[in-house]
C-alpha cells in the first residue's frame, strides 16, 4: 500500500510540473498544427503531412509522406526561448535548425541552419532552412530550402487541414 502511495505521489508531482511548464510562443503556435494536412507543391504534386505531440507534449512530430518510401520526420522542441527543429531526411542526413524567440502574434517562424549530422561532404545536399507561415487555422505554408554544392533550391508546400 505504501508503494502505491509513493507512486501516486510521484505521478502527481510529475503531472503538476508538466502542467506548469511554459513553452515559448513559437512552440505554442507550432502545436496548433496537430492533425492531418494535405500539401500541394508549386509543380502541382501533392502529399500528406501529419502532426502529433509526443514526450508529454514537449515535442511536435511532423511526418511528411507517412507510410511512403520517401517518408521524412521533423521533430520540433523548445530550447529555452527558441525552438529547435531536427529534420530526418530521405537524403539520410539530419539537419538541425533553430528559430529565434518570437513574441506577440506569430504569423511566421523562420528556422535557420545550425548543423547537420551524417553529411558525407560539406557540399552534399541537405535541408538548410525552413520558414513556416500561418495563413489561418486551416492553412499554412512551409518553405524549405535545399542546399547542394552551395546552391539553394526552394521547395514551397501549401498545406490545408484535413482533420
Characterise the protein shown here:
- This protein has two helices and ten strands; from the N terminus they run H-H-E-E-E-E-E-E-E-E-E-E.
- With 163 residues, the chain is α+β, with helices and mostly antiparallel strands.
- The chain has one domain (28-161): Calycin beta-barrel core domain (Lipocalin, Beta Barrel).
- A ten-stranded antiparallel beta barrel has the order 1-2-3-4-5-6-7-8-9-10.
- The protein is globular, with a radius of gyration of 18 Å.
- Mean pLDDT is 91; it is low at 12-18.
End-to-end separation in angstroms reads 44 Å
Task: Compute the number of strand runs.
Answer: 10
* Percent strand: over 45%
Q: SSE order in H/E notation?
A: HHEEEEEEEEEE
Determine the number of helices (DSSP H or I, runs of at least 4 residues): 2
Rg, rounded, reads: 18 Å
Number of domains: 1
Give the name of the CATH superfamily: Calycin beta-barrel core domain
Structural class: alpha+beta
Q: At CATH's second level, what is the architecture?
A: Beta Barrel
CATH topology: Lipocalin
CATH level 1 class label: Mainly Beta
Strand order of the largest sheet: 1-2-3-4-5-6-7-8-9-10
Give the helix proportion (percent range). Answer: 10-25%
Uncertain spans:
12-18
Biggest sheet architecture: 10 strands, antiparallel, barrel
Care to give the gist of this entry?
This protein has helices at 2-20, 25-31, and strands spanning 35-41, 46-54, 59-64, 72-79, 82-88, 94-99, 108-117, 126-136, 139-148, 151-161. With 163 residues, the chain is an alpha+beta fold.
